[in-house]
Write a structure and sequence with these properties.
Elements: E1 7-12, H1 22-39, E2 43-46, H2 60-69, E3 75-78, E4 81-82, H3 88-101, E5 106-111, H4 118-125, H5 134-146, E6 169-174, H6 180-185, E7 189-193, H7 201-212, E8 224-232, H8 236-253, H9 265-269, H10 275-284, E9 288-291, H11 293-307, E10 311-315, H12 321-335
Parallel strand pairs: 1-2, 1-10, 2-3, 3-5, 4-5, 5-6, 6-7, 7-8, 8-9, 8-10
Helix pairs in contact: 1-12, 3-5, 8-10, 11-12
């Protein structure tokens, strides 16, 4: 695959750096999106996380609206809105409204994880009387967007407003491969979270999705996006320092005691790694691509080849806004975007 047809996209957690507040992180995300647009980045997606103070993005729709209003052409999306927490109709209305405000620019990425610890998840859902199976919620969501529900649907004839002249693009986020076939059956895009599961499950799921894809309302051809954490340094030593900070953050982000900020290079350098931390880091190695711009560019090309796609999405979970901006600039140069 040549660099000329490799598309680069971004997934942003809105990281909150040491000494700063969420408002600083969100302003930094807007600036990163503006820079991304100038550099030719294709999509800019924002996450949904709850109870994670080091990641400021907990409402994709609100942050998407801010980013889209500060840019002109780049596609904006959710990576991913956590559908089990919400009414399918409400999500359809939110994204139809975004598409009305920013025509031909909105991606609706959906996921089935709760995105929170059990206590926070309970707080998000305490007024619900029952849970609806994820596949049913996705079917309902697409029905509300298109107005085309299955004949036996309890919502037949209903659609979300406002109606739009243009069409948003939906994606199913997968991390195990189990959602690939129903994404294909419904004719939706498919994004695999290599940053969660860096095994062969991802490429296998991408193959299964393409083999089973059926053209529906949203797309005539299958679309696969592979997403991975990335750390870029001007030198190998700098890249290692950023990788160290990433791994330290990730170890605690997925523990019962997450950091309230993304650890700085200085904090990371002063940290004494325990045997258990090093063991977790070793298990997490494949979730991050790190190195100099040329080294990272080569690894991203290989990732795209493994997934049989021309689009990779990167998450620059690196401390310091200047470092993230620099990493994006040097990486797009190396990839000849």
């Amino acid at each position: 695959m040549s660099d000329a047809n490799l598309q680069l996209s971004i997934l942003d957690y809105a990281p909150v750096d040491e000494g700063l507040m969420a408002s600083d992180a969100l302003a930094a995300s807007v600036r990163l999106a503006q820079s991304a647009e100038q550099l030719g980045i294709y999509r800019y997606w924002v996450s949904e996380h709850h109870g994670m103070p080091a990641a400021a993005s907990n409402s994709p729709e609100i942050l998407m609206s801010r980013i889209a209003s500060a840019t002109q052409n780049i596609r904006v999306g959710s990576g991913a809105v956590l559908l089990p927490n919400y009414s399918s109709l409400k999500i359809a209305e939110n994204y139809q409204l975004l598409e009305s405000l920013f025509p031909n620019r909105v991606d609706l990425g959906i996921g089935r994880a709760p995105g929170a610890d059990p206590r926070t998840g309970a707080a998000l859902n305490e007024e619900k009387g029952r849970s609806v199976p994820y596949g049913q919620k996705v079917s309902d969501l697409m029905g509300f967007i298109t107005g085309q529900h299955p004949e036996n649907s309890r919502y037949a004839g209903m659609r979300a407003h406002p109606e739009t002249q243009s069409q948003l693009q939906p994606f199913v986020l997968g991390a195990s491969g189990s959602t690939a076939e129903f994404a294909a059956e419904m004719g939706l895009g498919f994004t695999f979270a290599h940053f969660i599961n860096p095994s062969s499950d991802g490429p296998n799921a991408a193959d299964a999705y393409r083999d089973a894809f059926k053209a529906r309302h949203f797309a005539a051809q299958p679309t696969v996006v592979a997403c991975v954490f990335v750390a870029v340094g001007d030198t190998e030593a700098e890249a290692k320092a950023f990788a160290d900070a990433f791994h330290l953050w990730l170890i605690y982000a997925e523990s019962a005691h997450p950091f309230d900020r993304v650890p700085s290079l200085e904090t990371t350098a002063a940290h004494t790694w325990t045997a258990s931390e090093l063991a977790i880091r070793e298990r997490n190695q494949g979730r991050l691509i790190s190195g100099t711009p040329d080294q990272v560019a080569q690894q991203l090309r290989q990732l795209a080849q493994d997934y049989g796609t021309n689009e990779v999405m990167i998450n620059l979970m690196m401390p310091n806004e200047t470092a993230r901006l620099r990493a994006l600039d040097t990486l797009t140069t190396a990839l000849k975007i």
